[in-house]
Amino acid sequence: MLLAFLINSLLITIAVTIHYEVLRLLSVTIPKLQIKHRLRVIVGVFGTICAHVIEIWMFGLAFYLLTQYGDFGSLGSNFDGSLIDSVYFSFTNYTTDGYGDIEPFGALRFLTGVESLTGLSLITWSASFMFIEMSKFWGDD
Question: What is the mean pLDDT of the chain?
Answer without folding.
Answer: 93
